[in-house]
Design goal:
α7 (86-97) crosses α8. The chain has helices at 6-14, 19-26, 30-37, 45-55, 59-64, 72-82, 86-97, 105-117. It starts with 5 loop residues before the first helix and ends with a helix. The chain folds into 2 domains: 6-64, lambda repressor-like DNA-binding domains (434 Repressor (Amino-terminal Domain), Orthogonal Bundle); 72-117, no CATH class. By secondary structure, the protein is mostly helical.
């Protein structure tokens, strides 16, 4: 499905649902959907997020036609990161990015300042 255009992916997702019903669900006009499906117009972010919520597909898939696959370790790190407090997240960021000279100094200062306030 990677070779499909964004409009073709939208059309495939809609499937046999009528354009009217799909548009009502997505809160857009039928002419707008027709333009999306024919690649005459690119959908806005609000539409893509609604489509993501409706289908469970990632924005990566919707926009690019491919999912980013994480290995088990990557998925575990992300899951754990999402479940920790902000200070721990900042420590992780400093650990991962601290030695990277391209790490944005504004972000680094923000992280360091959050430690100083704790």
């Amino acid at each position: 499905m990677k070779d499909l255009t964004l409009g073709q992916r939208i059309l495939e997702i809609r499937g046999k649902t009528s354009r009217k019903v799909f548009c009502d669900e997505m809160e857009i006009g039928t002419a707008t959907l027709q333009r999306y499906e024919s690649d005459e117009r690119s959908p806005d972010l609000d539409f893509l997020i609604k489509l993501q919520n409706k289908t469970g597909l990632s924005l990566d898939y919707l926009v690019h036609g491919e999912e980013i696959q994480l290995n088990t370790d990557e998925a575990l790190v992300i899951e754990k990161y999402r479940n920790v407090d902000e200070q721990t997240k900042n420590k992780v960021l400093l650990t991962l990015m601290g030695s990277d000279m391209s790490f944005n100094s504004n972000i680094q200062n923000s992280v360091v300042n959050s430690f100083n306030q704790s």
